[in-house]
Each structure stands twice: as structure tokens, then as C-alpha cells.
Design a protein that fits this description.
- The chain is an alpha+beta fold and 733 residues long.
- It has five domains: 95 residues, no CATH class; 152 residues, Rossmann fold; 98 residues, Immunoglobulins (Immunoglobulin-like, Sandwich), CATH 2.60.40.10; 245 residues, 3-Layer(aba) Sandwich (Rossmann fold); 97 residues, Macroglobulin (MG2) domain (Immunoglobulin-like, Sandwich).
- Helices cover 23% and strands 33% of the residues.
- Strands 18-17-19-20-28-27-26-23 form an eight-stranded mixed β-sheet. Strands 29-30-31-34-33-32-35-36 form an eight-stranded antiparallel β-sheet, with no helix packed on it.
- Helix 2 runs antiparallel to helix 13 and helix 4 runs parallel beside helix 5.
- This is VWFA domain-containing protein.
- It comes from Chthoniobacter flavus Ellin428.
- Keywords: Membrane, Transmembrane, Transmembrane helix.
């Protein structure tokens, strides 16, 4: 490429420019002969010829080319990947020996493999995607790998860049596609030599991918922990997943892992001692596994001895009421009170029966779950004030509310009360109180209901679905139209449907801080047929514990503290809720309530909770965890003399995961796009040799395009303007 002015020399372009300029000269000479020399008109003709010449020049697209030759020593930048996925141990260093990707890269960096290039290039070595060393760093972002950013940065920072040597597994999960930076590098004639570190296929391994467990449980009560196991072996694996914890708590589950398949299942165990501690779930290591370190996971669990308080309200002693009451009465972890309205004969009496619905908030607030049967507003039953208090109990105190409608249809009056918005389904009582049939119908679990903790009557989703299919059915169901927005449908009628689909009969929804459940049949008591109390007792026991779970996250005498989400991540906005009672058991509405959170690093933060609802004594605040780990939490109200200490576990979000195959296709694409090379660890020395053989970098070309320069266009416009003004002065049109 030569420096200087260049023109478009295409024959047709030159022809058009020459003809245009010749015609302009002819008109110029003709005008001079006709009008004579001198005077104002001659200047106009000269200006017109000048404009025509400029237009003819523009048609030739003139450009001035300047070559910027690089006199400094060129630079090679070595970028090495320090992300979490590089901990994967799948780099073959011998016939049967493997090393982690990170260890292999570190070994090459320590050996200064780029030394042969230092005589020819300036060499800069830079890591990227390293996890933050400060536990409080990058709070608002996830930990991951941005492969595009480091490539863009080296191009911006180094004007003398000749090539990039990239050592990575290609596992990018943040930022723009690295092809964006590769395109910019290609335009600057900067090749990328990529060394793909890691295997593109799974190495032999059995991995315990996840464990989900509650943050607390009750002593001598069944606790369920969901787990996921991935098999990367080419054979079936029969194994046993176990859980162990403080006090000798143990549980196990036999599973069969299909070849290269995944299994999700549930572990059930029963802690025998109180206290907090770490529980460990393990999968035995198979002989051919490469990564034995991913066969175990721990979770923190607080085991407490508590009695959940339940209130059952109904209008008649129907079978559903009788068997529900019996099930709860026989549950050692539940204390039951009953309000049985007999609108015609008076209130029901007996052990645990109340003479009236709790008239005061301080009486009602002690209940964790309330069951509302076939009752309504008025007619000697609930009052509008009762309905308002129930709503406050759910939304403010995180209690649970279960709707159990019946054939009398008294629930209809609830829809116009304060409880109307809490019902998770829409109903239509215009055609009666429900639908009856002489043929037995059954509940059918939805996809969500197959593994929901509330509906788990067996230890795995497939077996659970079979249990529900075998349960005795029902002969009546409520006039449900559809589920409301935000509701979660767990079971539907096996056959009945309308324009919205299957009729939802087991539906749940969050309501403020609490939960609401709707069961649109009255025949759960029939589940005892042939199996006695097995499924009937288990279901209602799970309902009570599931609905009371949030309310009992942390509590001590006179203080109840809960938060959402229950398992927060670093950077989440955690809503803190506290209810403090005075010595008389009445929620305080005045006085300072504080929550002090001490991070694992030792830093503390004290939050003053604001009074959200003075009637219920609810105090709320917000907290954003700045690091992961266990936070020590202290809730304090000096004016009431109340204090509670607990823990809050915060996880650190990360997109990085060890054990996955390397994604080398993107490295191949980057190398091909930039005219570089791609290879594996064995080809590293060849890559270095290839860099040493790169030709001298071409001079950087800069072009000044006169024909499209704004100033040139402005000059032409100015000449046209002068010519037009001159014509007007000369009296020409």
C-alpha cells in the first residue's frame, strides 16, 4: 500500500467526471463569448466553473492514505483463566494421571513458558476471571467468567499489540459473546492463539449436585431433604445416599443411577436431640471416579422442641371435621383447639373446644394454623371482625390458613369479607354449593404437586404419584372456577374441566408473610380405607408443619423473628420481620426494636426495625448481606426486656462449576476468526513457536476521505450559496 492521494479510477467514473467537467468548461467559454470579459458576470461564471470542478473531483472519491509504521517492539499478551471452573481435574498428565486445569496452568506460568518470545516481543502476562479475594467484593454481581472483557481490554490498553495467547477452558457465562472482541482483534490484525485446557467430555464421576433442606426442624419429627445425583459413568450405579448429623441422626435412601443419567429423590431422617449443627449428605465414591470431592454436601439445621398450635373452625361435626380433629389430637407435636358452631343447637363442647372464636388479637395470635371448614360470616358463626383478625394473623404473623369448604356452601359469604382476597381460587355459587356425583372421582397431582413437600406421601415423585392415584376418591367438590393469579395448583379433578382447564382442587398461595391452602373436597377422611392412618395423618401433619414453618424460623420467649427469603444469597434484599410481646403477652407497638447482624468476617450492622402494623406489633426492616457464610443475629427490644439470638446462613451466588466439560468450540472460533491457531496442552510449545514466526505487523493504515468529509461538503454548500446570492444580485432568476 502506497502513501499519498488515491482516486477511484473505474473507467465509467472517470468518464462521467471528464464529460461533466468538459461540459462545464464549454458552457463557461460559451458564456464568456456571449457576454464578454470582465464585470460581475465573469466572476459568477468562474465561480460556477470552480463548483463544477469540485463536483467532478468528488465523483473520483479522493482519499489521502497515511501509513503509521510501528517502531516500538511488538507485544504479546498471555491471558490465563483463573475462574472456578478451572478447578476441574481433567487434564491428562500421564497415562492414568490427571491434574486440575488450574494446576496445569499454574505450572506453565511458573515455568515461564513464554521465555523464547522475550527476545522478539514484549510479553505481558495477565489473569482474568479470578474469584474475588475480598469476601465482600462484587456484592451485586455473580461470580463467573467474562471471556469477552479481557480480550477487549488488551486491545484498548496496548497499542503495540501483536498477538494474544489465551489459556482457558472456554467456559464463559458472563458478559458479551467473546466473538465480539475477536472481531475487533481481527480488524486490527491481532491473531489469538488459544490453548484449550480440559476435556470436552465428562470424565468418570458420580456427583451429588444439590441438597435442599429446611433451615429448622422439630425433634422426633420427620425431616425431608431433596437431593440430586448425576451419574457420569457409562454404567448403571446402585448406591445408597446417606445423611448424618449431630446426636446420631441418620437417614439413607437406596437409588439406582442410570448410565450418564440423573436422579432426584428425597432423604427422610428423624433427629433425636435438640440443637443446631451441620448435617452431611454423602454418596459413596465409585472406584473409577475422578472427582471424589463432589460426593458430599452439608447443610445447617436447627432442631427444636416445639408444639404447634392449631385452631379448627367448623359449623357441623361432619366426617371431614371429625377425622381431621382426631388426626391433629393424636399428633404429639400439635396442640388443638376447636370452635364448632351449631347454629341451631349451640356451640360444641368437649376437650379442647372453645366457647367462642378468640375475640382478641392477643388470643388469636398464638395459633400457627387455622382450619376454616364449612363456615361463613353471620348466621351465628364468624363476624366481620373475626375475618379481619384472621387476615391479619396470616399476613402479619405468618400463620397458615386452610379453607375446607363443605356441601352447605357457607364459604360463599367469606368472599365478601376481609378473607375474600386470601382465597386462592375463584368460585361460582350461582348454581349451587358444589357438584355431587354417584361416581367416585380422584385427585390428580400436577407436575408441581408430584414433588411438593406438602403432598409428598412417598419418598420419591414417581412413588408419590402412584400413592395419590391409589387413594380413595370423593363424591362432592366445591364450585371452583379457576385458580387466582399467583396461586400454585398442586392437584386437580381427574376428569372435570371447564374453559380454563382441569378444575383445581388443591391450591396454595402466599398471603403477606403467611400461606393459604384451599382443598375443594371433603373426603380426605376416606384415605384411611385399608391403610388406617398412614396417609391421612401424614398429609395433615405435613400441612400444619409446612404452613407454620416460616413463622417458627426463630423464636424465643416473647420474640418471634422470621425473614424472607429463607435461604438468602449474597446481594439479596432480605426482609426482616419481628414481633415482640410484652410481659402480658401483648404485641408492643412502641419502643425500639433492633436487629444486629454480625458477618463471618466480624463486621456488624445494626438495623432499626420500623413498625409496619401497630395492631399486630409487626416490625420490619431490610438487610443486604455483603458476604457469604453464617451471620450471628441478635434481635433486641430493651423497653420490653426481650432478646433473641439466632443464625442466618447466606450463600454466595456463582455461575462457576467444577466438573463440567470444557467448552473449546468457542476457542476454536476465536482462533479461526482472528487467523490464529488452536491447540491443546500438548501443543503449547508449538503455539510459542508459531508466535515467534509471525510476520512483521503491517503498518497501520489511516485514510482521509475528502469526498465524504463534512468540511468538504460544507465548502461545496458554501460555494453554491455564494453562486446563488451572486445571481440574485445580478438580477438573474
Amino acid at each position: 500500500m502506497n502513501e499519498g492521494w488515491q482516486f477511484n479510477t473505474a473507467p465509467w467514473v472517470v468518464g462521467v467526471a471528464v464529460v461533466f467537467l468538459a461540459a462545464s468548461i464549454w458552457f463557461f467559454l460559451r458564456s464568456l463569448r456571449r457576454e464578454g470579459h470582465g464585470g460581475w458576470m465573469t466572476l459568477l461564471h468562474v465561480l460556477r466553473l470552480l463548483i463544477a470542478a469540485a463536483i467532478a473531483l468528488t465523483l473520483l472519491r479522493p482519499e489521502r492514505v497515511q501509513l503509521n509504521r510501528h517502531n516500538e517492539q511488538p507485544r504479546v499478551v498471555v491471558l490465563w483463566d483463573g475462574s472456578g471452573s478451572m478447578e476441574t481435574k481433567d487434564v491428562l498428565t500421564g497415562e492414568k494421571e490427571t491434574s486440575s486445569r488450574a494446576a496445569w496452568v499454574k505450572k506453565q506460568i511458573e515455568a515461564k513458558f513464554w521465555s523464547p518470545l522475550e527476545k522478539q516481543y514484549q510479553v505481558t502476562v495477565e489473569p482474568f476471571a479470578e474469584p474475588p479475594k475480598d469476601p465482600k467484593a462484587d456484592v451485586e454481581t455473580e461470580v463467573g467468567t467474562d471471556l469477552n472483557a479481557p480480550l477487549e481490554n488488551v486491545l484498548k490498553q496496548h497499542g503495540d499489540l501483536r498477538a494474544v495467547l489465551l489459556l482457558s477452558d472456554g467456559d464463559w457465562n458472563l458478559g458479551k459473546s467473546p466473538i465480539t472482541a475477536a472481531t475487533a482483534l481481527a480488524q486490527r490484525d491481532v491473531p489469538v492463539f488459544a490453548v484449550g485446557v480440559g476435556s470436552e467430555t465428562y470424565l468418570p464421576d458420580v456427583e451429588l449436585q444439590s441438597v435442599q433442606a429446611p433451615s429448622y426442624g422439630l425433634i422426633n419429627e420427620r425431616i425431608s431433604a431433596m437431593f440430586t445425583v448425576q451419574n457420569h459413568l457409562p454404567r448403571e450405579v446402585k448406591t445408597t445416599v446417606t445423611v448424618e448429623g449431630p446426636g446420631g441422626a441418620k437417614g439413607s435412601k437406596n437409588v439406582v443411577l442410570p448410565p450418564m443419567g440423573q436422579v432426584q429423590d428425597m432423604l427422610v431422617f428423624t433427629p433425636q436431640t435438640e440443637g443446631e449443627g451441620d448435617f452431611t449428605v454423602r454418596v459413596p465414591v465409585e472406584p473409577e471416579e475422578v472427582f471424589p470431592g463432589n460426593n458430599a454436601r452439608t447443610f445447617h439445621l436447627a432442631v427444636r422442641k416445639e408444639t404447634l398450635k392449631v385452631l379448627v373452625v367448623d359449623s357441623q361435626p361432619r366426617w371431614e371435621f371429625r377425622y381431621l380433629r382426631n388426626a391433629l389430637m393424636r399428633d404429639s407435636g400439635v396442640s388443638v383447639n376447636v370452635v364448632l358452631y351449631h347454629p341451631q343447637i349451640g356451640m360444641g363442647e368437649g376437650v379442647g373446644y372453645l366457647k367462642e372464636f378468640p375475640p382478641k388479637r392477643e388470643d388469636l395470635q398464638s395459633y400457627d394454623v387455622v382450619f376454616l371448614g364449612d363456615v361463613g360470616i353471620g348466621g351465628g358463626m364468624l363476624t366481620p371482625d373475626n375475618a379481619t383478625m384472621l387476615r391479619g394473623l396470616v399476613e402479619q404473623q405468618a400463620s397458615g390458613l386452610v379453607f375446607l369448604p363443605g356441601e352447605l356452601g357457607r364459604e360463599k359469604s367469606l368472599t365478601d369479607s376481609a378473607l375474600g382476597d386470601l382465597i386462592p381460587v375463584e368460585t361460582d355459587y350461582s348454581k349451587g354449593s358444589g357438584f355431587s356425583s354417584g361416581a367416585e372421582a380422584r385427585l390428580e397431582l400436577t407436575f408441581r404437586g408430584r414433588d411438593h413437600w406438602l403432598t409428598m406421601l412417598a419418598t420419591d415423585p414417581n412413588a408419590n404419584e402412584a400413592v395419590w392415584r391409589g387413594l380413595p376418591g370423593f363424591y362432592w367438590y366445591a364450585p371452583v372456577v379457576k385458580a387466582r393469579p399467583g396461586a400454585e395448583v398442586l392437584a386437580v379433578h381427574e376428569a372435570a374441566r371447564n374453559q380454563y382447564g382441569r378444575i383445581p382442587l388443591l391450591v396454595t398461595r402466599n398471603a403477606g408473610n403467611g400461606k393459604v391452602l384451599y382443598m375443594g373436597t371433603d373426603s380426605a377422611w376416606r384415605w384411611r380405607k385399608g391403610v388406617e392412618d398412614t396417609y391421612h395423618y401424614r398429609f395433615w401433619g405435613q400441612v400444619v408443619r409446612w404452613m407454620a414453618h416460616q413463622r417458627h424460623l426463630s423464636q424465643d420467649e416473647g420474640v418471634r423473628f422470621f425473614y424472607a427469603p429463607e435461604t438468602p444469597k449474597r446481594g439479596d434484599k432480605v426482609r426482616l420481620n419481628a414481633t415482640v410481646l410484652d410481659k402480658m403477652g401483648i404485641p408492643i407497638s412502641e419502643g425500639r426494636v433492633t436487629v444486629t447482624l454480625t458477618a463471618p468476617s466480624g463486621t456488624s450492622e445494626t438495623i432499626d426495625l420500623a413498625t409496619e402494623n401497630a395492631e399486630w406489633g409487626v416490625h420490619t426492616g431490610q438487610f443486604v448481606p455483603r458476604e457469604g457464610g453464617k451471620y450471628a443475629v441478635e434481635v433486641k427490644c430493651d423497653s420490653a426486656g426481650r432478646r433473641l439470638k439466632t443464625q442466618l446462613e447466606v450463600t454466595v451466588p456463582t455461575l462457576e462449576k467444577a466438573g463440567l466439560p470444557a467448552k473449546l468450540d468457542v476457542l476454536r472460533e476465536i482462533s479461526a476468526l482472528t487467523a490464529g491457531k488452536f491447540g491443546g496442552p500438548a501443543e503449547l510449545s508449538q503455539m510459542v513457536n508459531g508466535l515467534s514466526l509471525l510476520p512483521e505487523r503491517k503498518p497501520e493504515e489511516r485514510r482521509f476521505r475528502l469526498w465524504c468529509d463534512p468540511w468538504w461538503c460544507a465548502a461545496l454548500l458554501g460555494l453554491f450559496t455564494l453562486y446563488w446570492i451572486g445571481r440574485k444580485i445580478g438580477g438573474l432568476t
